[in-house]
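S1.2 Input.
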Amino acid sequence: MKLLSLFALALPISESFSLMTPLSIRTDNTIKVPAPPVLDVPEVPEDHDILLRAARGEDVRRTPLWMMRQAGRYMKAFREYSDVIPFRTRSETPSIAIELSLQCVKRYGLDGCIMFSDILTPLTAIGVDWDVVKGKGPQVTTDLSTREGINALTELGNVDEKLPFLRETLEGLRKITEGKTTLLGFVGSPWTLSAYCVEKGGTKDCRNFKRMMYEEPEMAKELIDKMAVMAGNYAAHQVDCGAQVIQIFESWAHHMSPKDFEEFAKPAAKKTIEIIKSKCPDTPVIFFANGGSAYLELQQDMGGDMVCVDWQVDMAVARETLGKEIPISGNVDPGVLFGTEQQIREAVRECVKKAGGPGAKHVMNLGHGVRQGTPEIAVEWLVNESKQLSK
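S1.3 Output.
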């Protein structure tokens, strides 16, 4: 394990950045890199793996909590980095990725730490060029709208050689979070990754990929299948590096009809989960389809361990649709965090109650990521209310 970048050094800005905020930029254009932060042991020590156990479907004493985009621009400490350092530099420099992953965990005492990265990160390893452009979001420059482009994709191969920062980041995080909180890794779903590539970035209607799906369905399925294999192996590599739970993000599920999901997305997502489970049978897998609450019944047999639901469905309806035996995650509306303390605490209590009560095969989460501009105190209210609801 390489821990060099985790300890006190003085390196050029172009090579490394401070592990602690605020950034310590010196007059000689270098940044001091101090030792990694120390997380507190939970007030109830056995809660250190409460999220891991809940994701497996085990009975726990209270509902554990983490949040999608918990490492984000709503935090002033995070903006110290995001305002001056490009996204890929942040996510692919282990010392920075570790710091950004831990800021929110240290601040709020969350039950889960998810590594700071992007669903597009592994695309580099299979021959896809991409970047995150400030003000535009993810941009893909490799053309995968043709069979020639799809055929040119390589296998994931040796991730330690192609994406060496990943192991250093996850091993560093696991060292710090061990006995304190659960470490999550994640991947994009095969369909969403394929759509991103064909659309070459964000899209309002996904028209280019949908055109491929209807005009060249076999070609679309070939691309999706390649992504399924890559995502499964990439997730398994994350587990090998220290991740304890994997979440699959079907981020663009809102672009699919139930029929589209069943024909194109679901078989590939199940294949990804099968690959993960074949290599890491004891690792819980959470499936999240953003905007997929319209077809929750199609997610009952994904093959994973937990289904995360978005905020556009009532939790009671989601629980009834999925059944009491399927562990569920979600689904407080992230917009509620712009409300009052009373409104936020009430939303948490309502969500937990409708999910079946504290510890009832439920992991508290938002129904989407924490939004920019969310008051930090609002997140604190949500976390505190969730933690005090126990059996």
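S1.4 Remarks. Residues 217-241 form the longest helix (25 residues).
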